[in-house]
TrEMBL record:
Transmembrane segments: 6-39, 79-112
Name this protein carries in UniProt: DUF454 domain-containing protein
Top-rank taxon, per record: Bacteria
One Gene Ontology cellular component annotation held by this UniProt entry: plasma membrane
PANTHER family registered for this protein in UniProt: INNER MEMBRANE PROTEIN YBAN
InterPro entries assigned: DUF454
Keywords: Membrane, Transmembrane, Transmembrane helix
Origin species: Sphingorhabdus wooponensis
Signal peptide: none
Listed Pfam families: DUF454
Length: 117
């Protein structure tokens, strides 16, 4: 039962990560990391396929081995958070417009403190 839950969670994360390729505010790599985590506990074949993927495999292996995020990934996250902050300031009233700024501050601090691959 637990193995099937991990499999379904991995498939859902994979689907969301795939959708994130086309949708700019939906992150791709974090969902792929989650999918690899779930597949490691449910389907070694799917995990190996994801880790050997030509586009995402390098990032997933770097995260798994060193907890590393590429500089390009860090800058992409920074730009995406900047867009979210701008949307928050224009679409939300105070004090709610400060929420994206706070979330971005915490998340970006964590991201930029991670090692680079």
């Amino acid at each position: 039962m637990k193995q099937q839950l991990y499999l379904w969670a991995g498939l859902l994360a994979l689907a969301l990560g795939t959708a994130g390729i086309a949708l700019p505010l939906l992150p791709t790599v974090p969902f792929m990391i989650l999918a690899a985590f779930c597949f490691a506990r449910s389907s070694p074949a799917l995990e190996a396929r994801l880790l050997n993927h030509p586009k995402f495999g390098v990032h997933l292996v770097a995260w798994r081995d060193k907890g590393a995020i590429s500089r390009r990934g860090k800058w992409s996250a920074t730009i995406a958070f900047g867009v979210s902050i701008a949307i928050g300031f224009t679409a939300l009233a105070l004090p709610w417009s400060l929420l994206p700024l706070g979330v971005a501050g915490v998340c970006l601090s964590w991201i930029w403190l991670k090692p680079e691959d």
